[in-house]
Design goal:
By secondary structure, the protein is of the alpha+beta class. Helices cover 29% and strands 33% of the residues. It has a domain of 118 residues: Aminopeptidase (3-Layer(aba) Sandwich). It contains five helices and eight strands, in the order E-E-H-H-H-E-E-E-H-E-H-E-E. It has an eight-stranded mixed β-sheet, with helices on both faces. A hairpin with a 3-residue loop joins strand 1 and strand 2. It binds coenzyme A (COA).
Length: 174
């Protein structure tokens, strides 16, 4: 039984990820347009997606949902919140969306609901996230979720192939 509850928004159902979602997740894990600024490299084998889902499901500290388009039952993205490795005492948020569903405000709709859940049910009062300066679209998602620019930093791909100048955003509840 997963710890993540099903969360309903206007257009989406957010539900805990399962191994049955591997094919859907691989459809964006393997798309360079989506992975360009992600820390993972573009997957060329679905076994990498399966491995990622297994490790995420085993991580008690990470709360991860897939975004399902209501009516179509189509899995279009994923989003998570986890104690941050970037800033002490903060929780970090992350997300990616299948390219066909960009520009529809779906990611913002999902992440607003996840942040709201984390604040109300988990008592999370400090969240942060970073995005590459060259990926301003992600920055807009953060702004629309109530985060504000805090400072500049940088991050690298997990395989060390590239380093990005980054903007770090935070939101703190008093
Ligand atoms: C980041 C991501 C989830 C955003 O999805 P999306 O569906 O485009 O997001 P939204 O529609 O909710 O919002 C995007 C915003 O960026 C804006 N935008 C689009 N292109 C832009 C650009 N080149 N420069 C600045 N803003 C831009 C849009 O106008 C929109 O803002 P608005 O609502 O104020 O008009 C999606 O692009 C994605 O999956 N990217 C790859 C993975 C990724 O980068 N994840 C985050 C890593 S930090």
């Amino acid at each position: 039984m997963s710890k993540e509850p099903i969360i309903e928004t206007e257009r989406l159902l957010l539900r805990p990820i399962t191994l049955d979602d591997a094919q859907a997740c691989y459809s964006w894990n393997s798309d360079e347009r989506v992975t360009r600024f992600m820390s993972y490299s573009t997957y060329t084998d679905i076994s990498r997606t399966v491995e990622w889902i297994r490790s995420a499901m085993a991580n008690e500290k990470e709360w991860l949902w897939v975004f399902v388009l209501k009516g179509k039952s189509k899995v279009i993205g994923s989003g998570s919140i986890v104690p941050s490795a970037l800033m002490k005492g903060f929780w970090g948020i992350g997300y990616n969306l299948h390219y066909d569903y960009w520009h529809k405000d779906c990611c913002t709709e999902a992440m607003k609901a996840i942040i709201d859940f984390a604040h109300r049910e988990l008592g999370v009062n400090k969240i942060c996230s970073e995005h590459a300066v060259d990926n301003p679209r992600s920055g807009r998602v953060l702004e629309k979720c109530g985060l504000q620019f805090d400072h500049y930093g940088e991050y690298s791909k997990l395989d060390g192939s590239e380093t990005f100048k980054a903007k770090i955003y935070t939101r703190v509840w008093e």
